[in-house]
Amino acid sequence: MRRCPNPSLAVVSTGAAWGGMLRPVSDALVPIVTALAGLVSGIVAASWRTGLGLAARYDADIRDKRLAAYAKLWSSLKGLDRRARPLSMTLGDALELLEQLTDWYHETGGLLMSRATQRKFADLQQLLVEATSTKAAAETELSTAMLSQLIAAVSALRTSTTQDILSRRGPLLGARVL
Description:
The protein has helices at 29-76, 91-109, 115-131, 144-165; strands spanning 9-13, 22-26. It is mainly α. The chain has a domain at 60-165: Four Helix Bundle (Hemerythrin (Met), subunit A), CATH 1.20.120. The longest helix has 48 residues, at 29-76.
């Protein structure tokens, strides 16, 4: 090992990859590099935790807003519950529901829906447009086939909304112990 002409500098060998050259490293440089590495890793960790916290707050906020909006949507869809009796709908009822859904979309829930729920909502609206495209009187009953399609579309929409707000899941932190 070669000796460094300045005794205040430590000598570190860089190994064969550097041709066996010796490089002097100041004793003060090691703590500075260590401190900088710690600082950078601390900043990265703090940023990551902050990002996770913000994401969690955003998720909770959007879930709460969806819950309120979807409750109103479900209320307007109660007439198309497959367990409701008697199960019938007139052309006038379908037109009224289509108007309610359009209002709800633009005033309450359109910005809050997930893409999957938005697709199910659009499917229901399209069926209502098809059901109301006739020139029949408002008291005319919808066909059984159309009513079945509407009920299936409403069921799919309700299922999608429950997935958005995670209401059909168990506790996220495990089972509760009482």
